[in-house]
Design a protein that fits this description.
2 copies of one chain form a homodimer. With 107 residues, the first copy, chain A, is α+β, with helices and mostly antiparallel strands. In chain A, 66% of the residues lie in helices and 13% in strands. Chain A has a single domain, classed as Winged helix-like DNA-binding domain superfamily/Winged helix DNA-binding domain (Arc Repressor Mutant, subunit A). The radius of gyration of chain A is 19 Å and the shape is elongated. At the A-B interface, helix 1, helix 2 and helix 5 of A face helix 1, helix 2 and helix 5 of B. Chain A binds a DNA duplex (30 and 30 nucleotides) through helix 4.
Chain lengths: 107, 107
DNA sequence: AAAATACTTAAGTATATGCCTAACTATCAG
DNA sequence: CTGATAGTTAGGCATATACTTAAGTATTTT
């Protein structure tokens, strides 16, 4: 059960193309910070900041071994964000359905 | 097919609890600006700004009749945002699966 | 031990975001 | 017409975001 703040952070994290690109990279498998940075048209410290946002959102985690920090996706938050959208879409469909019945039944 | 900018805007829009609350209200059915504002602890102009963000993201549309602006959810963008997450989650599962096969844990 | 690698931290800047109040416009109701 | 209602616009302010370059700190590698 994600709270408001977690949801805020997860969606806010995904609201940036650089971070979505990082997630896209990480769903293929783990990567180091430099590997992530290679794909992005910005400095490594900037990529680090994006990584921090992703970690604070719970979408990604990382750990450091030696001098290399390895990052990977955390699927749970991905699922939770997905579920929120799915539930709302379903609610909307239900509303449409009720409207249809109302218009049909009540002439 | 959502482009990067649309995705940026949709997820960024959902990255704010006020706007998510507005979406939650609107999936139940259409509402006026004042109705949306009643639920929020802020001024009506502030709610208008959030509405503008939601409209620019494609998640919500509105039209004005007389002096009342009526807002409603646009399910398509909701679905597209949902699909992006779903596809990434599936990619991650595929990666895990490959890893499992590699390790010989699963067949 | 010296140099290269892989981050990490710091300091600064520019723009965007999230709010506010006040003043304005356009309808609708009596 | 007059006032209430619904929304809009404008101006301002405080904080957050998205970068930058420069200067660190650990770890390998040679």
């Amino acid at each position: 059960m994600p709270n408001y703040q977690e949801m805020d952070r997860a969606y806010q994290a995904l609201g940036d193309r650089t971070r979505r690109a990082m997630v896209e990279r990480l769903v293929q498998g783990p990567a180091s910070v430099s590997e992530l940075a290679k794909d992005q048209p910005m400095s490594l410290p900037a990529v680090m900041l994006h990584l921090k946002v992703l970690e604070e959102s719970g979408l990604v985690k990382s750990r450091k071994q030696g001098r290399v920090r390895t990052c990977e996706v955390v699927p749970q938050m991905l699922s939770e964000a997905e579920r929120w959208l799915s539930e709302r879409r379903q609610m909307w469909e239900l509303s449409l359905d009720r409207l249809g019945k109302y218009l049909g039944v009540e002439k």
